[in-house]
Automatic annotation (TrEMBL):
InterPro entries: Methyltransf_25, SAM-dependent_MTases_sf. This is Unannotated protein. Residues 35-115 form the Methyltransferase domain. It comes from freshwater metagenome. Gene3D superfamilies: Vaccinia Virus protein VP39.
């Protein structure tokens, strides 16, 4: 899995922030927030997020992705004390080490890039966070995607083409989140993540700690 993303990010020059990032940055972020991006890729969203927040942490399994994100942040002259970029697994992040007036956890197209075991571990860690307010913003592929069932079936709803994709069942994910968090918004629609000729039905979920 990491080999694919390392290869991908050795030569991937997408610069613009995603529509999801643009919306989160404009509608939800506060300048005092600390943002953690899970599966940050080359930092194209990270750069927009760090500009709207107090501190940004980008985590990705791919060392090439993190290197590319680092070059992007340096090129944009973001002060190095305002961010941290780490090669790591989002299902193992220790959120309790992150001090913030509010922690915003952002994941765009990374949740479906790993297993349901990783997803469950992540939700457990998020639910354990008790240092203050937390807001989680996720965009991910779903079983309603045209790419669903393309490639070799390797686990439930999970297919391998040149890389791994686990297509999420939106209602099941929402149920899991509902048990431990307050769901602020839940949308499953086309038009959120157009890319070339593709316009998949994707899921956007925003949730916060139970009050
Ligand atoms: C489809 S890319 C999305 C990248 C970026 N969020 C974007 O929208 O441009 C998925 C990313 O998730 C990363 N990833 C997959 N599983 C991960 C995990 N368990 N921990 C951290 N990163 C992971 C991959 O290395 C890859 O960079």
């Amino acid at each position: 899995m990491t080999a694919f993303w390392d290869h991908h990010y050795a030569d991937f020059n997408e610069d613009s922030p995603s529509p999801f990032c643009t919306k989160v940055a404009a509608d939800l972020l506060l300048p005092t927030d600390s943002v953690v991006e899970l599966g940050c890729g080359n930092g194209r969203d990270g750069l927009a997020l760090v500009r709207r927040a107090d501190f940004y942490t980008g985590v990705d399994l791919s060392a090439n992705a993190i290197q590319s994100a680092g070059e992007r942040f340096l090129g944009a002259r973001i002060a190095t004390q305002r961010y941290s970029l780490t090669v790591g697994d989002f299902s193992k992040v220790n959120f309790a080490t992150l001090e913030a007036s509010r922690l915003v956890v952002y994941s765009r197209f990374s949740l479906h890039a790993d297993s349901e075991v990783a997803e469950n571990a992540l939700l457990d860690h998020l639910a354990e966070y008790d240092l203050g307010p937390i807001l989680v913003c996720i965009e991910a592929r779903t079983i309603f995607d045209e790419l669903y069932e393309q490639g070799e079936l390797i686990e439930r709803n999970t297919y391998m083409t040149d890389h791994y994709r686990r297509f999420i069942v939106p209602d099941e994910f929402k149920e899991k989140v509902d048990r431990r968090f307050t769901v602020n918004s839940f949308e499953v629609e086309r038009g959120f993540a157009p890319y070339g000729s593709e316009d998949p039905i994707v899921m956007r979920v925003v949730f916060s700690g139970k009050s």
